[in-house]
Amino acid sequence: MTHFIQTAIRHIALSATILSAAGCGVQARQPAPSTDTLPHVISSGLQDRFHVQGAVADLKRGCVYFSFTTKLIKTDLQGNLIGSVDGLTGHLGDLALHPGTGRLYGSLEYKDDDIGRGIRKGVGQDGSDMPQTSAFYIAVFNPDRITRPGMDAERDSVMTAVCLPAVSADYHARVSRPGRPDVAHRYGCSGIDGVTFAPGREKKDGMQPLLYVAYGIYADSTRTDNDYQVLQAYDVSRWERMYERPLSQAHPHSSGPACPEHCYFVYTGNTTYGLQNLAYDPGSGNFYAAAYKGIKNGFPNYTLFVIDGNAAPRKEKLRGVYPEEEGLTLPLLGPAADSSGTCHDIRGWHFPWGATGLSPIGDGRFYISHNGVDSITGRQFCNLKLYKWTGKAEKAFSEEK
H/E element holding 254? Predict the structure, then answer.
C-alpha cells in the first residue's frame, strides 16, 4: 500500500507537470485546443521511402512530431508542415516529449548490419565513411528551433545526442548456453525502439520523471532468453550539462551515462523487434506498448500490451534466461490468453495499429498511427487517428468518428 501511495503522488505530480508544460519557456504557436475539438485525423503528408517509426502530439503547443526513420517532421494539428530535420543516416525511432521542458527525445540507432546498410543506401550513402560498429543514442531535439523544412541534423544546432553504452554492451555481448553454441545479443537485444517519460518506480526516484527506453528484441525462435521486454530507466535531469553533444555521424561520440538508474523486465512472450512504441498515459498511470507480432508457437503473440504502472517491481528469476539471473519485473494488465498454462501471466490484445505511433492524450483517448504507402508515388505517409480506450478483450480501442 505504501508503494501504491508513493507512486500515486509521483503520478499526480507528473500529470501536473504535463498540464503546466506550456509555461516552461517554450512558446506555443497557438492556444491549446479544447480536447473536445481535437481533429480526428492528423496527416503527415507524403514523405520519403522510409516508413513512420513514431509520432507524438504536443497539444499544449499545438504541434505534432513524426519520425520517418531518417527525418523528423513537425506539423501543426491540421497537418500543415512547420519544419523538418533531415540528414540523419541512422534509425530514428519512437519519440517522447519531456513533460517539464517540452524537449523532444527519440531513440536513435547506428547499426553495422543489413538494416543500417539499407538506411545508408536509402539516403544515397555507400557507408564507406561510417564507423564499422553499432552504437545506440537518445537524440534530443529543441522544438523551438525547428522552424523550417530541411534543417540539417548536424549543422543547424537543433539536435544533440547521448550515447547509451549499457545498450551497446548487451547488443555486442555473446551469451553462453549449457551444451549449446554461444549466441549473440544478451536478452536478444537488437538495439532500442520505444521511449517514454513516466514517474520513477522506486522511492529514491522522487518526483523527477524518468526516460524509459525499451530494447528492440530479435524474434529468434531458437532461443528462450528473448521473451522479456527490457526497459531501462534514465534520469535525464543532468544530461544537458554532462552528456549531450552534437552528433557527427561520421565520427560519433561516446558521451553518456555508464548505466541506467533501473532496469525492468516485462514477460510478454515473443515479439518481432520488441516494443516499437512505448507510451505512458498520465490518465491511468500505465504504460501502453505496441509491437510487431512474434513468431514462436506456444505464445499468444500479442501486438498490444498494457504494463501496470502502479505495481511495485518484483524481483524474481527470469524465465529462460541464461546464465540464470534475477531481475526486477513489472506485470501486465488485460485479458489473459491462458489462465492455467505457461502463458497465464501474459496479457494483451491483437490490435493492428500502434507499432508506428502511439500518443495518449491523458483522458482515455489516444492518437494512433495508421501508416501507409501512396500507390502512385510509393512515398510513405502517416495518418494519426483519434481512438478511445475500451480495454475490451475483443476491441481494445474504438475509433472516434
Answer: none
pLDDT in tens, 317-349: 999 999 999 999 999 999 876 655 567 789 999
Tell me the three-class secondary structure of 357-399, residue by residue. Answer: CEEECCCCEEEEEEEEECCCCCCEEEEEEEEEEEEECCEEEEE
pTM, two decimals, is 0.90
Is 34 within 8 Å of 336 (Cβ atoms)?
A: no
DSSP secondary structure, 212-246, as one string: EEEEEE---TT-STTSEEEEEEE--TTHHHHT-B-
Beta strands in 249-379 (DSSP E): 262-267, 271-281, 286-293, 304-307, 314-317, 326-329, 332-333, 358-360, 365-373
Strand partners, 271: 293
Burial (0-12, 13-18, 19+ Cβ within 10 Å), 209: buried
Tell me the three cell numbers of residue 232: 531501462
Give the angle subtended at the CA of 368 by the CAs of 351 and 40, to the nearest 5°.
Answer: 125
pLDDT value at 5 more than 80? no
- Predicted local distance difference test score (pLDDT) of residue 326: 98
- C-alpha distance from residue 83 to each of 21, 71, 157, 330, 369 (Å): 21, 11, 14, 38, 20
* Each residue's pLDDT tens digit, 55-81: 999 999 999 999 999 999 999 999 999
Can you read off the three cell numbers belonging to residue 121? 543506401
What values do phi and psi take at 9, rounded to 5?
Answer: -65, -45
Within a 10 A sphere around the Cβ of 192, how many other Cβ atoms? Answer: 27
- CA-to-CA separations, 94 to 24, 53, 226, 260, in angstroms, rounded: 23, 6, 21, 19
CA gap 244, 349 in Å, rounded: 38
* CATH architecture under which domain 2-399 falls: 5 Propeller (2.115)
Q: For residues 199 and 13, what is the distance between their CA atoms, to the nearest angstrom?
A: 9
Amino acid at position 337, single letter: A
Distance in angstroms (rounded) separating the CA atoms of residues 196 and 294: 22
Is the pLDDT score of 375 beyond 80? yes
